[in-house]
Amino acid sequence: MYIFNNRCIELEKVPLTVEEIWNIGLNRGLVQKIGTKGKTPIKTLAARLYTDMKNNPKSDFIKVKRPTKFFLKSLGEIKEEVVVKEVKKEEEKFCERDLHPFLVKFIFSNPHFKAYSKTIYHEASTRKQKGYNKWLHPDIVGVYFPFEDYNKETQSLQETFKVNPFKLFSFEMKIKLTLATLRECYFQAVSNSSWANEGYLVALEIDEDEDLMDELRRLNNSFGIGVIKLNREEVEASEILLPGREKEFLDWDTIDRLTDENRDFKKFINSIMEDIKLRKVKSKYDEIILDK
After folding, report:
1. In this structure, are residues 217 and 261 in contact, taking their beta carbons and an 8 Å threshold?
2. What is the mean pLDDT of residues 36-50?
3. Which of 40, 105, 222, 289 falls between 20 and 30 A from 235, CA-CA?
């Protein structure tokens, strides 16, 4: 597979995402030569690339970030302006809501969350005086159900001991996080996540700035909002950079206000109650994109 990756990039002579490498291999008839039988060959491809760059000091692969693409050292250096053009071109392709399906998939598959999600459309809220609902609505809400982790007897015992196995999450989505935008983005997440057990600020791009990370750690320590770096190319490679601080008690006043103000959030709450009664997930949440 090392030769396969190398050959595909060598043929195109430009930085490529893992998906682009795989598609080029398909089109060029190279896939048959590697004989992969895995159900998720693209993930295997990505894992091999990352492993080679990490463990092989003589690796010929380099990573071009934003978005993540791979190139060969043997093909020479990539001019900075080429990388900048790629970044700008990529940013023009999507908005924050285009990223929601990727976040939905991550928080469903990640063992920390294992949550079902629902997008909250701000425009679905009751119209109020300007500024009244500012920073009230999260972008995505999530719920963890214990149905697949505990048998019915254990769940009944939890009810007897008044142990709450359910968990609610709140997510604020941003395309890019910089030192200049950090405080506004973070406190927006603080404001619209107060009702949940855990709140998170999610960004596709986070500047590699030590001052930014220091400030993120300080804010996380003070206010407890976690930080997730979303990987659009390889969702499973997304990272929880800072965990959210779990709150034992929910903010019922804010939950009540959100239920009253926004029909999407009201549907979310009703779905949770229906599924808890049935002890199985039967309600409709955001669709989870499965690997092909």
Report:
1. no
2. 71
3. 222
Count of alpha carbons within 13 angstroms of residue 266, beta-carbon side: 10
Pick the residue with more confidence: 130 or 97? 97
Helix, strand, coil percentages (3-state) for the chain, rounded to 5, are 45, 15, 35
pLDDT band at 77 (very low <50, low <70, confident <90, very high): low
Closest CA relative to residue 240, chosen from 111, 148, 133, 131: 111
- What letter represents residue 54's amino acid? K
User: Cα separation of 274 and 283, whole Å?
Assistant: 7
Residue 139 has pLDDT above 60, yes or no: yes
pTM: 0.67
Q: Is the dihedral of CA 250, 248, 219, 139 positive or negative?
A: negative
Residue whose tokens read 């009201």: 266
Euclidean distance between the first and final Cα of the chain, in Å?
20
